[in-house]
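Let us work through a complete example step by step.
Step 1: write down the sequence.
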Amino acid sequence: MASLVTSLQHHTDEVTCCTFSSSLLATGSGDKTLRLYNTSDFSELPCSPLSAHGYGVRSCCFTSCGDYLLSCCADGSILVWSCKSGEVDSELQHPNRSPLRVVALAPDSSLMMAGASDGSVTLWDFNSRTLLRCTPVSEASVVACCFSPCGHKMATGCSLGDLQIWDVDNSLLHAEKNAHDLGVTCCTFAPQFEIEDSHVQVRLASCGQDSQLKIWMVSQQEGHACVVKLLHTLTSQCAPVLCCAFSSDGELVVAGSVDKSVAIYDTGRGTLLHTLKQHDRYVTAVAFSPTMPWMATGSMDKTVNVWKIGDGHLTSGAEAVQTMHQGRKQQASFSRLLLPDWSEEDVQAWLREEGLDELLAIFRANNMDGAELSQLSKETAMEMGIESVGLRARLLRSIQALKMELSAPDCPDEFACPITRELMKDPVIAADGFSYERESIESWIRGKNRSSPMTNLPLQTTLLTPNRALKMAISRWRCGHP
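Step 2: predict the structure and record it as tokens.
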């Protein structure tokens, strides 16, 4: 399921964090530096390493557009780096200069929060770089924090073991006492949320010193209390679990442990899919790429391993780069057309270029053209008779990458409507949890097809909710890209 692409060995001390943007991998270390790599071939950028912290880097994350990288350390500072120049764009300080343990950004990068050793959480307006509030939330260190995919909720975890859910106005929505015995180490929301019976639902993963990874369902109906339900307790690792992350589609969750292993689970079933044991010391950092089938794992052995998720033999870095070059060749062949305009012959040619020849007969029998390909979901693939889990996963990842390659090159993918692939002006959230241009999804709903354009599942309601946070993010982006 996971094949090693490359092992990066440039840090001189333990790797403490790693994160992906759409085109870069960033790694942080106890050696006080961050390093930037291009995900096209995992070569280090000329501006790397980034050196300005006085202590070891504790946590890092990219802005949604990938232009900036944030990092924090024990001196109480958050540094905002320009990914183009490698220079420090700005420096933010905890008001009490308390050592910072973790930093996180809202999905639209409008808000930033950081957890500190004094038990406080600071919330910042990232665009103006101004402190909104500094709130004590625990008697112990806040070691984990994250934003929900809609940006309206936050989760925090502390070294005492408590897990808390907040809204962005700092109201406590739910407190899960002793979620992890001996302490929480990491928490992260799944990238997507769902709407079911007017309830907004999103999965949350947390891990801790109790050697467990837990998956929770966080749900709330407008005007009602927040409900947190434990879905799975995963115990395949025999020592404290230090880090966890969801894949970009939310179907996988990965965890790194003191037992030197990396465990990959099926999120829905809560079943162990694969265990990786290539690190020599504690696994301290894990991350998935939002756009490619890459996963990164960092360790106290000073290395960062990059993995390709999917079926296949052990893949070398050169082979991985060759695969991506073939993908770019494919884009050149079909970039003259929007995906819904592809003919059945175009789809057949694309399958060959993607190395999915075994699907040709199935696609011919089902008369799959570009419009059908763009709506293909896991459920539809199963109905077509694609029984292999690995083959279905490869197909869906290839379709996702294809949609991104054919989108507007100057527009971040999250700002493009999934239907038209054009920059959204009035984004709304549909019942499937995805955001669309209002006019496009309303036209879609008025048609005879009432299924989701993204999942092909029936839309349980035609209610559309304005995505104001995304609209603001698009407006800010447009101001910088006239």
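Step 3: interpret the result. The two ends are 43 Å apart (CA to CA).
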